[in-house]
Amino acid sequence: MHIFPQLRKVERKYPNEVVVIGVHSPKFPAERETENLRAAIMRYGIEHPVVNDRDFRVWQAYAGRAWPTVYFIDPAGKVIGRHEGEISFQQLDHVVADMIAEFERKGLLTHQPLPTRLEKTLERESPLLFPGKVLADSRSQRLFIADSGHNLLIVTGFDGVIRESIGCGQPGFRDGDFATARFQAPQGMAIGDDVLYLADLENHAIRRIDFTTREVTTLAGTGEQAPHFHRGGPARGLPLNSPWDVALRDDTLYIAMAGFHQIWTLDLVAGIICPFAGTGHEGLEDGSREVAWFAQPSGLAMGPNELYVADAETSSIREVDLGASGQVRTIVGVGLFEFGDIDGTGDVVRLQHPLGVAWDEGVLLVADSYNNKVKRIDPRTRTSITFAGNGQPGDQDGLGPLARFREPSGVSIASGRLYVADTNNNLIRVVDLLNGAVGTLQLHSS
Q1: CA-angle at 37, arms to 96 and 26, nearest 5°
Q2: What is the largest CA-CA distance in the chain?
Q3: Residues 23, 58: contact at Cβ < 8 Å?
Q4: Residue 299 forms beta bridges with which residues?
Q5: For residues 229 and 244, what is the distance between their CA atoms, to the nearest angstrom?
Q6: Is cis: bond before 68, omega within 30 of 0?
Q7: What is the pLDDT of residue 83?
Q8: Global model pTM greater than 0.85
Q9: Helix runs in 14-143, H state only
Q10: What share of the chain has pLDDT > 90, as a percent?
Q11: Of the options 3.40.30.10, 1.20.120.450, 3.30.420.40, 3.40.50.2300, the CATH number for the domain spanning 3-105
């Protein structure tokens, strides 16, 4: 995900000299399905050809070793270089410019754009486009939807009546009033009084939405991705790295900093942001906050004295003690390459790339995204059961075992109901916590 914006800049600067070809060599079984890949291509605005290398044939032919890897291929089809890991636009631009100059001198460039056919964005009419997260606020009876694909925030009642939208809808990084502010792939939210805090994912920023002044301001981040790990400081002047979700307690905002594989905190009074838990190493290690490892934490939920984390790349649910012990422990999940769809207790449980978690009366509800399910997990007994969804992708309503989702990413609880951002269905689903019945929220204007 971090390399897409850099490639996009190259494509726009050299539209007639450079062809980008994406090769998708999937880690998770759900990522092998072409339809899921197609949805991801549309979700992230990819406009170059992509091959589904589901059996790793291209990976093996090119001796792939790391995600991501960039190969440089000359006009004659010969591999002339490669780069493993993330790379900045400046680095790419330097290499590409030199290559273009060399092959221009040799007369090997055609300066003709590659003919392509973009995938159709939507197969159905829907007000939403790949909603990433949802937040239900029982106090105000409002639902806040991160309409990620439209770069908007949508505010509705629990009845589905759309009260307003925030943002102009164009991707960008701009503060201002509700009509002119710009976001880029907004994700997780937290509410305090009449202020909404937002993880603005592709702007690598934390935004503040004030419903009294009706202004959007930036609390943390510069709009650019941090080029390297750092220890924090004054929040407004520091670049961040893919903040995916937020949770609020008192004057502290907890941030799932997915790109750094850490949990960070933002002191809302002092304006200071810094790492809170995790070393920055990618993996699953328990222990104190100073030694624990996470891997792309993407969902947060606040318990009585714990912070619960959907740790996506380890397919696990983690717990961070907010008290004196400061311990991190794994509730379910085993490691980076252990995943599946297995209910049970303890280390036998398997999830597949969970992205959302919500706490309710001592129980966790988890968006088990790549399994197309909602799981119910008891953090004390480490027991996980399927609460809703039969695992097959779809948009079918009904009682829990009959319902179908398509890569749900966000969950939030209010008034006895679980609200689900059903991302690849472009829908908000509603699950009755008493009987598990799943319905679809019909969004409409008043």
Answers
A1: 75
A2: 71
A3: yes
A4: 310
A5: 17
A6: yes
A7: 94
A8: yes
A9: 34-43, 57-61, 89-105
A10: 89
A11: 3.40.30.10
